[in-house]
């Protein structure tokens, strides 16, 4: 009897100890988060960083995109006016392109007067429509001026090419069209704007 009661008491004490240990473990788990479980603050931070791939308000997104494009165009136009190469188009950046602009702007080019001359000849052609001989002379003169501007642009490029090779060692791709196109523009309307207000200031 005594041995049976003693063993039973030992079993009950062990069960009580196990129960206390289990309850203590549950209380510890309830009081502290599991390892690896993000805290609420971390969840909130991650939720703020998550952005949908497709914007919920497409109209607002389109307005923001247009506003950014308009700001970029305004910044680029101001750079073309002031000469700030940081915001210029890629085709106008670089020391070689700047040298080409300065050389073309310093020179008197027949091409920069071609548009005005062509308009005058068009008006003269309309006024002399009843006089075929005079109209023919005007047309021939116009062709002569066109040929003269082409020859002048060719001479300009030959001289400019030698200077570019002497200064930079080579000629960048697209420089020919860049120089000729600028030479055929009105000097006041050129962008980027000339660095000097008058002709004659050749780059060194």
Keywords:
mainly alpha, single chain
Q: Count the E strands.
A: 0
Weakly predicted, low-confidence segments: 1-19, 21-35
Rg, Å, rounded: 41 Å
Shape: flat
- The helical percent reads 55-70%
Summed up, the helix count is: 7
The run of helices and strands is HHHHHHH
Strand percentage lies at under 5%
End-to-end Cα distance: 120 Å
Main sheet characteristics: none
Structural class of the helix and strand makeup? mainly alpha
**Regarding quaternary structure, how should these chains be classified?**
single chain
> On the 0-100 scale, what is the average pLDDT?
82
Report a brief summary of the structure.
With 204 residues, the protein is an all-alpha fold.
Description:
There is one protein chain. With 204 residues, the protein is mainly alpha-helical. Helix content is 67%, strand content 0%. The protein contains seven helices and no strands. The chain is flat. The termini are far apart. The N terminus is likely disordered.
Task: Give the topology, please.
Blueprint: H1 2-31, H2 40-49, H3 58-82, H4 95-106, H5 114-127, H6 132-168, H7 175-183
Helix pairs in contact: 4-6, 4-7, 5-6
């Amino acid at each position: 009897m005594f041995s049976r009661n003693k063993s039973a008491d030992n079993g009950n004490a062990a069960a009580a100890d196990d129960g206390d240990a289990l309850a203590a473990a549950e209380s510890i788990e309830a009081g502290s988060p599991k390892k690896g479980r993000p805290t609420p603050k971390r969840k909130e931070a991650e939720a703020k960083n998550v952005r949908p791939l497709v914007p919920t308000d497409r109209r607002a997104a389109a307005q923001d995109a247009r506003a950014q494009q308009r700001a970029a165009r305004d910044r680029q136009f101001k750079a073309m006016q002031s000469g700030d190469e940081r915001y210029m188009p890629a085709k106008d950046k670089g020391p070689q392109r700047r040298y080409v602009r300065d050389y073309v702007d310093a020179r008197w080019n027949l091409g920069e007067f071609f548009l005005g001359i062509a308009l005058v000849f068009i008006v003269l052609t309309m006024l002399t429509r009843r006089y075929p001989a005079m109209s023919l002379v005007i047309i021939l003169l116009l062709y002569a001026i066109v040929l003269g501007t082409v020859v002048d642009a060719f001479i300009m490029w030959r001289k400019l090419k030698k200077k570019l090779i002497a200064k930079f060692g080579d000629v960048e791709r697209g420089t020919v069209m860049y120089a000729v196109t600028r030479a055929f523009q009105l000097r006041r309307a050129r962008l980027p704007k000339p660095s000097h207000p008058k002709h004659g200031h050749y780059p060194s």
